[in-house]
Design brief:
This protein is α+β, with helices and mostly antiparallel strands. About 20% of the residues lie in helices and about 40% in strands. The chain has one domain (about 1-145).
Length: about 160
């Protein structure tokens, strides 16, 4: 959803979360710049050679919390939803191959969690490639919301 200035020109975005076609929450007022920065950071992390994380799907920007978007009412009260992304390291046991003792393999995943105003939540566990595609889609949608309106174009997308 485009945020508009006093003369109606779009300048930033706020995210509307939908679940099964119904509005689930509104979060991240003026978050477009952060989404663009995150998309770039994920792409750079995946492209960088990684000694600690040899699999590109395990490579993310260095922050543990990549974003946390909440809805704040004008009086400062947090309500109406939350969308956040945190990195977690997950140990996976790799069983032994004929006589070996097996080993632990560490993977990193992005946990994207959405909470509606009523307290119901959803979670997705994503690789860096999947997170990059998700954030790129959000950025594309935001750019479409901010593009000059042509006749027949809606000011909002879903």
């Amino acid at each position: 959803m485009a945020c508009r200035d006093s003369v109606g020109s779009p300048y930033e975005v706020t995210l509307e979360l939908h679940r099964d076609g119904t509005l689930y929450g509104t979060v991240g007022e003026r978050c477009g710049w952060l989404l663009v920065r995150l998309a770039k950071g994920v792409a750079e992390a995946r492209a960088a050679p990684g000694a600690q994380w040899p699999d590109p799907d395990d490579r993310f920007p260095d922050e543990e919390e990549l974003f946390a978007f909440r809805y704040r009412a004008r009086n400062g009260v947090v309500s109406g939803g939350e969308l956040r992304c945190q990195l977690r390291t997950i140990p996976v046991w790799i069983p032994a191959q004929r006589g070996s003792s097996g080993e632990w393999r560490l993977t990193r995943r992005a946990f994207v969690e959405a909470w509606g105003g009523g307290g119901v939540g959803m979670r997705a566990v994503l690789t860096s490639a999947e997170l990059g595609a998700f954030v790129a889609a959000l950025v594309t949608e935001a750019e479409e919301c901010l593009a000059p309106q042509k006749s027949g174009n809606s000011t909002r997308t879903r």
